[in-house]
Amino acid sequence: MSFQHQEINEFSVNFSNNQENEAFRDNYVEFFGITRVRKGTSINEDIELSESIINDAVAMDAGFDSSDLPDYSLGQKNIFGQVLRPKNSEKYANFHTIDWLKDLLKDKFRHRWLNNQKEKGNWLDKVEAWYDAFSGWFLVLLIGLGSGIVAGIVDIGSGWASNLKSGFCKPRFWLNREQCCWDSVLMTFDKFRSPECEEWVFWSNEFGMNNKTQGYFISIIIYIFTSVCFGTIAAAFVKVFAPYASGSGVPEIKTILSGFVIKGYLGKWTLLIKSIGVILSSSAGLALGKEGPFVHVASCCGNIFSWMFPKYGRNEAKKREILSAAASAGVAVAFGN
Questions:
Q1: Are the CB atoms for 172 and 180 separated by under 8 Å?
Q2: pTM of the model
């Protein structure tokens, strides 16, 4: 038996090249996702190291019986004498695809470690294990509340901005036309079934245009001017602050759910600018709907809230489970308004 030495990522790794174990090398060996050995080759001929899951790199002879390996998920020490804990963090480059198998292995390792802590640890370890078990429900609840609040703000804001093109509520400018006339005694309805009352002031009346023709002309100018302003402001916000807020967002969400990484597409700036853009764009009268943007907004909420729970925020495969639920919440709030 000969021994060889190789430096791998700043770690000194020794392995054997025992030809008697060549028959065992026909099997594919993966040691906790760290070192992979291709079928039918000696380990010193072809070693493929996956991206770093933990800071240790260990090369095992393919002829070694893997059943004799210690169960590192139970908190034993590694070859450097350090207690092994699950590390969920994984950094993927932009516009790359995640490694589903690696992330699932990490989550399985984390589960086994938590179960061991729940059985053998102190009461704090038990609380941590129970918190991890219920964190998914808490996260989905937060996503539902956040998506509903944002959708409500967008719906109320778009209604107010749309009415602003024709007039404003003089006593309380933050109310839209319907809300302004709720408590009015002299409320009537025009031919379009829109409420009319003394509290709601049209722009033509505010500028003193008592002539019907002049009032109609002024109303048309203000209507067009405000629509152009709303559309221009929305486009400028998207161009300057969040280019990913453009479009409906549904095709990109489907791409992300399939495992593709688009950094910044579900960030806080995208959420803010997308919400403002939907209010301004729909108020400007542009030909668009709220269904696609609400799916994008809800997915942004899911991505942001997931960082509060490392179980999902630091594991891209698990995060996509939450993003699927968030997209469903976006569809629900879009058709529930």
A1: yes
A2: 0.69
